[in-house]
Amino acid sequence: MSEIKNGNENITGKVNISEEVVSIISSQEARTVKGVVGMMSSLTGGFAEFLGKKNLSKGVKVEFQENNIIIDLFIIIEYGAIIQDVASIVQDRVKAEVESMTGLNVVAVNVNVEGVVVPENKEEATEE
After folding, report:
1. Residues of the domain holding 71
2. Paired sense of beta strands 68-78 and 36-44, if any
3. How many other β-carbons are positioned within 10 Å of the β-carbon of residue 89?
4. What is the pLDDT of residues 37-66, one digit of tens each?
């Protein structure tokens, strides 16, 4: 597990923030955006696993570069949502939340749309 120093080293000590912490913050914030229905882990050889709320840090890849962070999110979108709009909102909110909570600089939030979920009532409407 990687850690990054947030630059607030002083007489009392230093603060290290792990990838896991940044992943959980990112995942939780992404899920609050209207149109995002979940996170998906596609980081293991193409195997995609739909993840529920119990696995809070999955669907997120965090890369530390000195005092900068690059975040990759793997999300599932609700059918009918405008993908570009949802992705843009996710980028803005995740960047702001991670920077606010950690004091670290987020240089990129890459959103990967891994799937679309069609609500059951939409499916029934198309069959009729």
Report:
1. 3-127
2. antiparallel
3. 17
4. 999 875 443 444 455 445 667 789 999 988
Q: The whole model's pTM is what?
A: 0.78
What span, in angstroms and rounded, lies between the C-alpha atoms of 30 and 38? 9
Q: How far apart are CA 91 and CA 126, in angstroms?
A: 32
Amino acid identity, position 75: I
Q: Residue 73: is its pLDDT beyond 70?
A: yes
SS3 label, residue 121: helix
Buried b (16+ CB within 10 A) or exposed e, 3-40: ebeeeeeeeeeeeebebebbbebbbbbbbebebbbbbb
Beta bridge partners of 76: 38, 115
Helix axes 19-31, 83-102, angle to 10 degrees: 140
State the total domains in the chain.
Answer: 1
Tell me the two tokens of residue 65: 């570069």
CATH number of domain containing 106: 3.30.70.1350
